[in-house]
């Protein structure tokens, strides 16, 4: 089966939110993983995918991932690197799992999962690998290095299917190949591609929290400054759409959660939002995601 339009990601089109959407079947407003990094006003704490301790805390992850559903039905489960599988909650743990380590190559992942399927009699196995995302971030979508990575992934997938066939497993298994998001290139030759919020609002006096750089900016003004900040940003830049939380389009399914900030600013594809200009040189990733579908 082939999906002609691919897998359409949930908004925001970020890594952790969409892998958790795939695992739970829920929109981001329902499962609470609304971005790769965000502030929870109830905890008065911040989540970041780069903080391994925080990532392992169950309070950030809502909904039920498919490996828990499978275990409740008496199935055996194994997960290799899928976001959310490291949560320190015995009810959530797959039977077999591996803590994320970016140094592990794809062949090791596949060999491990193949052995789990064959030896451990696993009913549900899930695995994650960070390519071609990593290459596109570094080189851009149409770079030769990205093409080479995609060709490598094709060869590894051929190996996976061949090994499943050799081990007499292929006819017993349903395989889904999914992705968390698409990607686009920043308009690096356009001097207007970088949008600085400090050009339009008083960050020091009116803002409590705002990201340093992103395709989708979650803005937390001081309580009495929400309308002022919104009016200042509403028509500030033709390449940025700005919404009050309650006015976010319904198609985003992105308003009914306390973690979603009072104002959301969304850059057009190829543009990027910054808190303010930096004195040091920008080390921008050419390939980006997070935008409106």
From TrEMBL:
A Pfam family: Phosphodiest
Name of this chain's protein: Ectonucleotide pyrophosphatase/phosphodiesterase family member 5-like protein
Family matches, as InterPro entries: Alkaline_phosphatase_core_sf, Phosphodiest/P_Trfase
GO molecular function per UniProt: hydrolase activity
Origin species: Leptotrombidium deliense
Taxon lineage: Eukaryota, Metazoa, Ecdysozoa, Arthropoda, Chelicerata
């Amino acid at each position: 089966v082939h999906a002609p339009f691919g897998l359409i990601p949930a908004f925001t089109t970020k890594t952790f939110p969409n892998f958790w959407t795939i695992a739970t079947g829920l929109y981001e407003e329902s499962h609470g993983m609304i971005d790769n990094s965000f502030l929870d006003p109830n905890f008065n704490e911040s989540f970041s995918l780069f903080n391994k301790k925080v990532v392992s805390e169950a309070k950030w992850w809502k909904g039920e991932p498919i490996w828990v559903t499978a275990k409740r039905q008496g199935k055996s489960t194994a997960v290799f690197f899928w976001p959310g599988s490291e949560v320190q909650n015995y009810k959530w743990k797959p039977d077999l799992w591996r803590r994320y380590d970016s140094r592990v190559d794809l062949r090791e992942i596949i060999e491990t999962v193949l052995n789990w399927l064959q030896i451990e009699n696993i009913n549900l196995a899930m695995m994650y690998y960070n390519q071609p995302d990593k290459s596109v971030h570094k080189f851009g979508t149409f770079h030769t290095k990205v093409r080479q990575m995609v060709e490598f992934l094709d060869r590894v997938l051929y190996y996976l299917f061949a090994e499943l066939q050799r081990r007499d497993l292929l006819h017993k298994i349903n395989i889904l190949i999914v992705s968390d998001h698409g990607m686009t290139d920043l308009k690096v030759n356009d001097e207007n591609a970088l949008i600085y919020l400090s050009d339009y609002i008083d960050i020091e006096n009116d803002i409590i929290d705002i990201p340093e750089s992103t395709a989708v900016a979650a803005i937390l003004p001081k309580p009495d400054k929400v309308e002022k900040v919104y009016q200042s940003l509403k028509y500030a830049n033709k390449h940025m759409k700005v919404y009050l939380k309650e006015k976010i389009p319904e198609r985003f399914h992105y308003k009914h959660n306390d973690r979603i900030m009072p104002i959301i600013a969304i850059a057009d594809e190829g543009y990027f939002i910054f808190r303010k200009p930096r004195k040091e040189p920008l080390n921008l990733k050419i390939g980006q995601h997070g935008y409106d579908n």
